[in-house]
Amino acid sequence: MRMVGGYAQFVAIVRLALLYIGAFLVVVAAIDWAVRTRRVSPFNRIARFFRGNVDPLLAPIERVVVRAGGLPSAAAWWSLLVYAVFGILLLSLLGLIGDLLFQAAVMANRPDQILPILLSWTFSLLILAVFVRVLASWLPVSPYSRWIRWSYVLTDWFIRPLQRIIPKVGMFDITPIVAWLLLSLLRNAVLSLF
After folding, report:
1. How far, in Å, are 30, 35, 59, 85 from residue 27 at the CA level?
2. Interior/surface letters 165-192, b for 16+ CB within 10 angstroms, e for the rest
3. What is the DSSP letter of 1?
4. How many CB atoms lie within 10 A of CB 89?
5. Fewest CB atoms within 10 A around its CB: which of 40, 59, 80, 186?
6. Measured at the alpha carbon of residue 175, what is the angle toward residues 173 and 180, in degrees to the nearest 5?
7. pLDDT one digit per residue (tens) for the chain, 194 residues
8. Residue 43, helix vs strand vs coil
9. CA 102 to centroid of chain Cα atoms
10. What sign has the CA pseudo-torsion 86, 89, 94, 95?
């Protein structure tokens, strides 16, 4: 259990570091936007520093933004959005690892809790697979790519029969949402038995 407490402190430090870095990036994005939109004189020291040091770092993001039809001055804000999504995903992953460590510690001390914890892990994996499948359907990613294929392998056995029963709503397939709800209800019902 001491390891779980140490891990929780590590996650708290990472969360605080992400917050401080995010606050710094907000300031950088605001100054970069002001320099790019000429709200700040382009000849002062700050503007020259940003054009020489920050803008080259933002060049890849700027190309993507411009290709998508956006303004180059919004590149810093988009990079901030990418950082926020990265931070959320990192904290979610660290939280998942912390939960797994805690549950492993519980299993080591209480063998009667092994089956409920393994069932909980199984349902969590299936729900994650449904989530990945939905996200992949929004992106131009092949369902046969090695990063996505596992989610289809894990979920096809219960999504395919649901697709035959549940009609599409316009052009949207709501079957994964129904599958997610059914998995959540089934998990709660099964785990309440223990």
Report:
1. 5, 12, 18, 18
2. eeeeeeeebebbebbbeebeeebeeeee
3. -
4. 10
5. 59
6. 135
7. 576 678 889 999 999 999 999 999 999 889 888 888 888 888 888 888 888 888 888 888 888 888 888 888 888 888 888 899 899 989 988 988 888 888 888 778 888 888 888 888 898 889 889 988 888 887 788 888 888 899 999 999 999 999 899 888 877 888 888 898 999 899 889 888 87
8. coil
9. 22
10. positive
Q: For the whole model, what pTM was predicted? A: 0.63
Return the amino acid letter for 182: L
Q: Is the dihedral of CA 36, 41, 46, 47 positive or negative?
A: positive
What is the total residue count of the chain? Answer: 194
Residue 154's alpha-carbon distances to 128, 139, 162, 186, in angstroms, are 10, 19, 15, 16
